[in-house]
Amino acid sequence: MRRRGVVAGVLVLGVALLAGPSSAGAVGPSDTPAFSKTETISRAHLVAGVSTPVDTRTVTATVSQTTKLRDRQAITVQWSGAHPTGGLVADVNSSAASQEEYPVVVMQCRGVDDSSAPTAKQVSPQTCWTQTPLERFQADYGFTFPPYRVDLWARPADRTAQAGQPDPFPSACEGQAGSATHWVPFVAADGHAYYGGGRSGCAGIAPEASLSSPALQPSNTTYGVSDLSGNGSAKFVVQTADTNASLGCSDTVACSLVIIPIMGISCDTDAAKLPVEDQPGDAAADAFALCSKTGFYKPGDTAGGSVDVEDLAVAGQLWWSESNWRNRITVPLSFSQSASVCSVFNSAVPAYVYGSETMAQATEQWGPHFCLNSTLFKFQHVQTGEPQAKNLLESGSIEAAFQAGAPQTPFTRRVVEAPVAVTGFVVAVEVDDVHGHPAATVKLNPRLLAKLLSESYPSNSSMKAAYAALGRNPSNIAEDPEFQALNPGLPTSILNGEQAASILTLSSDSDVIWALTSYLNADPEARAWLNGTPDPWGMVVNPRYERIVLPVTNWPLLDTFIPKDWYATGTNPCLTGKQGVPWLPLVSSPVSNLATITLDMQFDIANPLISCSNAQLPNQKLVAMGRQAPGNRFIFGITSLPDAERYQLSTAALQTQVSSGAGTKFTDSTGRTFVAPSYDSLKAAVAMLKPDKTLNTWLLPYASMRTSSTGAGAYPGTLLLSMDVAVEGLPKADAARYATLLRFAVGSGQTPGLGNGQLPPGYLPLTTTNGGAALTAFSLRAANAVANQTGALPLVTGGTLAPPVPATTGGAGTGGNGGVGTPPPTTTPGPPTTTPPPTTGPVVAGATQPLGSTTGVGSGAGGLVLPLVLLLALVGLLAGPLTGLVLRVRSGR
Amino acid sequence: MRPVRPLLLALLAGTVAAMLASAGPAQAAVSHTLIQGSGSGWSSNAVRQWIADVQPSGLQVVYTASGSAIGRKDFALKTTDFAVSDIGYQGKDSATNEDDTSLGRAYAYLPIVAGGTSFPYQVKVGGQLVRNLRLSGTTLAKIFTNQITNWNDPAITADNNGRKLPSLTIIPVVHSEGSGSSAQFTKYLDTDFASIWRPFFGHSGLTEYFPRKGGAIAQNGSDGVMNFIASGAANGAIGYDEYSYALGKNYPVAKIENSAGYFTLPTQYNVAVALTKALINTDKASPNYLLQDLHQVYVFGDPRTYPLSSYSYMIIPTAADDQRMTTAKRQTLADFLYYSICQGQAEMGPIGYSPLPVNLVQASFDQTARLKTADPAVDLTKRNVTTCHNPTFVSGQPTRNYLAEIAPPPAACDKVGAGPCNGNVGTTNGNPTSGGKLPVTPTTPGSTAGPTAGATATPSVNPDTGQPLTGGDGTTTATDLVGVPTELAADSHDTTGVLGVLAVIELLLILVLPPLLARKFFLRKGSSS
């Protein structure tokens, strides 16, 4: 009996999938496929001793990157020439997807495909990872000779009734075996064999496996879909032993990517050479009928319902059967040294740098460079929004911050903004064209981005009917003639298209939003539209956003329209009878960090919080729409270029200039220039950076980028990342470390690569060739100023702002005028030398009995210390002019 | 009865060698592997940071902030390796009546971080966001039980020392998911405002599913709640969540009155002071070992207390035969926890949490040891609280909490019957130590310090005139509204000129305020002794 997993309802899949997705590969080392191989494979039955060919295909597979792989990195696998796939399901990584007909199965296996290697180091179905035990177990309760028992190429042992059965047979599995059963244990790196045993996992599963999918993270085993022409692609997330110890791939344990284009079982129902009990005999005709089936579904059809109807002989479930396994294309993979290099037990005090998430990929590689070098120190990047870090730095709460743009007003403290990297924000797009393939390129102009951000697409027909102000607007971007003109070949309407009415962006304060909205604000078409001028097709801005002042660090959700009548219809029980919740902000549903957006885009998760969960229960709630079906995806998100590189996200090309037809209707992209993020387009943007005297940093001139010849090729999402550090008031030792960090960042830290201490893809190396000389030279001056802590501030326009008039403090002697680390005398290093009354920690007491209650800041001379300390701190801040106050206070005591 | 302390002292005495040894990079081959957990949104900003921190150490951790209730359920169903929850298993949820147990999976609780449940709000006056709202506990209780429904309510006016807000309907915003922040808030209501809370709820006790009634709005998750409060439709809204969410958005939160009659914010200092009154269950035999009883926190009389302070917990599997766990997973969990509760505490203050005090760090270490009890192959050497650089620590004195000791007193204008202060007073939240070496006394109230006092915050200037709205003591002088509004981010233009003026004014405040404050403080001391 074959069991069909729950296949999600009726999916509206077009003929799915996929030809070349355009990833942001231009900014990394993986522009051309690292691996390409062509194999001719066939299915041929053995009938009365004669080989009878049924199907022969020539399949080519390419893989974007096969060496120096990092844990959980995505690589792109593409193929052509495969049998078109039928019986499609939404989630190609689910165990249900194994029931597709003619999928291309992509899996990660331990070992190499080399018959000269020791057996233990060779790939086999037993070393290939599947998330669920269901994907490696077959049991048939009604018929004794299912297709895998009459597989022409299978070893005799695999054609027995109970092939691969564990010995001893686990008692928990009583009743699991059928009249024919086939087990493929998973053999872990430590040699342990997990037999699984179907849905129940009765014979044990690896700790990383799960009984059902999806687990919290989708599996990487992929039942890839080939389109009607036999083409397809998949983004495959490789796992090292860090994530999957049972699979155990590492820089020392070789692994492979195994690509199995399912052709169907080559049948041999005579089984002439087998023992008599393994010959179908009277059942041969029935066995052949089952084994020779060619598919229940037409290619491109969606799997229906929960009934087992697919033809097992051509289903992905039998990937391990020799007829399929022998057709594999094996891709050797090698891995970077594990990042497990910094000890968690390193008790050194780290040099903390707070701030920009766009630095995260770089600091993840830079960190080990520091922790591994005993002459250096530990370096810790605490990720916060840039404006939050700026505020903390301004107030002296932290010592250093990564920024992705200048503060809107200069720091009031003496802080140098030293460039450390150039990258960009990207508009990640997961959009499938009319054929169900990932769109090769998607072009966006500022006005389209403004439309997505400003809650101006009504998102569905109910809203369109209810919301008069937006009643004439397209429901979503797919229906927008402006988008269609720039992006021919994409669907012009999509069912359940709310996810295409907005773009997933940040809810927290961010320099990324500042850069994005600066770009929109500089564009006359976008600005005019935001000011209320309809676009040439008649679409208007949501009136709540009309004349919005840009740029901003936080994109506001301003729509207030509540479609009461529609809510009353009960379509969405979570909204029925509820008052006060406008619809469009739920469609926007921004999130508080870029990592979440990256994850959602990686797994095609549409974030609008509009699905009603636990509908009639007290704990009902609106949840995200969830994963989009391949072939039918249409989602956008703002994230960073390094994230897009690491996770192989496709990115939009952004409009830089309009040479003709501005402000009028257009039917194609003629007269408009679009630029994708690449080394070249980042380099062009760097060439345009302008030193700004007031903010003492470089700014992108968004206005002139629209007109100058260099600007045409400059990526408008470019971000100049800086490390901001005070040049006075820091403790010397801390200052020295930040100076070292800066010198590293603009020195060897700019070496591109995937190793420790190198600059990962997605950042433009700041070399002289790339126009980074002025930036790095300034950062080196900045490093000196940070190390010296004299208050002298290097200026981007040349020269140095002299140190402020030296201030005298109450004796701390570190100088400065209010920076951090100007401790008043009573709080010099270490624990307080004064003895404030002991304030206890949480009262550790018996469950009911409070003990040791605090005396508080109450009594005696000790009580005076606190206010004194505070005052003295203040004095530290105010320095010279108020020195007298200290004396007065002291005498007062 | 303090079983923790002797243990700790012994540990402190015996570990100098270990400290030295542990300074070097990666040691022996301890095998790690991916661990997955789910739960609290309240503490997820902290957990997310720790996950990023340990990645270079080869620890792979996946965390989904689906809410404490789901977190405990996932753990019980053995679909996760750990849970994060703001409360323990409740037996049954009083609202949904669903079972809330671990379904037999053996577990231990351990505190991972402290923080304050804050009350972000959107009240605009003349198109400007009010940033200095103050609320008493009673008013808060009445707002969330729909008894006070308009911002011009006399109770709110009284909380704000007579400054009246215009007529504007209050929109209480509650979590729709089973949320630890709902549990923390309703526990506070049930404990201190039973006569208001219980008739509304229908019975006594806390709930993770806040009953949405009347004009209240329910939103899913911390992002959902914050998104709604800050949205265009939400003028008049007030919700609740951990302080870090409001900080990340630079959004105002209400100052809440404590028992000393001061209105305070959930800074790491005020939270640390408050939690010195947390009663921790120290009965190791109890299923609730280490869980918190906060009733004394709510009413602590120290003026530096933030009343709605609490700890968040991790739930870890302790059975030797736990089917999800392997040596590698336990090792990863142990090392992740070690980092989180040790070094990971130092970075918590600036992002909106408050570090654990040393005795709880030690207690959590002890709980982590149960992973080794379950599996002797787990390596737990080199764990030492003295290496944590935790800003609450005073070397050799494990019962002291340095943060609580040096917590600045509230400004005089934050007292009942005084003020209100302008929007950035009392927001100090930086670490007392810079780089873990030199303690820097926190800047005093009235300075420009603090995360909400950024370049975009213009709290003391009339945006139209550029003139100060405040008196020299930080007290607002405007008579017609509570707030000293600042511009919405969306409305901001180039305000370089205005901000320049502001900087000067803020400097003046720094100069003028402290002597005044000091005088008040000393006078009070003098009269009480």
Protein architecture, described:
- The complex is a heterodimer of chains A (893) and B (529).
- With 893 residues, chain A is an alpha+beta fold.
- Chain A is built from 20 helices and 29 strands.
- In chain A, the strands form nine sheets. Chain A has a six-stranded mixed beta sheet with strand order 15-14-16-26-17-21. Chain A has a four-stranded antiparallel beta sheet with strand order 1-2-3-11, with no helix packed on it. In chain A, strands 10-4-12-13 form a four-stranded antiparallel beta sheet, with no helix packed on it.
- The longest helix of chain A has 19 residues, at 860-878.
- Chain A is globular, with a radius of gyration of 32 Å.
- With 529 residues, chain B is α/β, with parallel strands linked by helices.
- Helices cover 33% and strands 13% of the residues of chain B.
- In chain B, the strands form seven sheets. Chain B has a six-stranded mixed beta sheet with strand order 2-1-3-18-6-13. A three-stranded mixed beta sheet of chain B has the order 9-14-15. Chain B has a three-stranded parallel beta sheet with strand order 11-10-12.
- In chain B, β19 (433-434) and β20 (438-439) form a beta hairpin.
- In chain B, α7 (180-192) crosses α8 (194-201) and α13 runs antiparallel to α15.
- Chains A and B meet through β14, α3, β15, α4 and β20 of A and α3, β11, α9, α10 and β16 of B.
